[in-house]
# Entry
Amino acid sequence: MRGVARAVGPLLVANAVLLAPIAARADRVGSSDVPAKARMLAERGRAYHDAGDYANAITAFTQAYVIAPSPALLFNLAQAYRLQGDCEDAALMYRRYLATNPSAQGQALAETHLASVERCVHMLSLHIPVERAASRAVPPPPPPRESVVATRTQPAPSRTAQIEKDVGVGLVLGGTVALAAATYYTVAAHNASNDVAAAYAMGAKWKDVAPIDERGKTAAARAKILGAGGVLGVAGGIVTYLIGRHTEQLPVTVAPTRHGVELGMSWAF
# Structure
């Protein structure tokens, strides 16, 4: 069954197909002897159909038909194929539906749509361009006098944003190095303090331990300076890098107006 096996066809229909309204379904699937799964798939297909999602509607109707074949599902498949723009498969499904000897109303409706899709198939065989089908049967409302459709675009990374990111990375690296050096001098100051205490314990005089004490004080002072600078460098680097990233990803709104194009930018954290 070629029409049931295919999932999606080209979204092309002739003018007659575009102008034809969505007809009511020829029959209803849902008698007590129909499996529950088939009824669920048929209802899902109808929901997709009503939402204009004809590809998923075809899939659901096909799965329901495999479980419980019925003329109603053939008609629904024909409708979904037609509105999707697959004229050839729609014609096949309408013919299969008509072969089930439907009611007079269903037959008349199917024959009308079959004639329209057969014209579409004929035009396609002659390589005549046909119009593209709408996603829904209900035509969209006419646009207002001034149609404004805003779109969000992503600008190319600016030189300033790249510089800010590079500076941020540099500050973080420099701050990390400063913190490492502060750790080294902190350990050196601690060791000097221990050496002074040990020298006094051994009976050393001040003149003997003064150079060690001075070395410890110098190391402690350097540890404080480098520690503070390292913390500021890392924090400032992170902030600068994030500013650069935000500037790089700043969304731009482009809205066409009657007199040209309006640009807008939003800033939010």
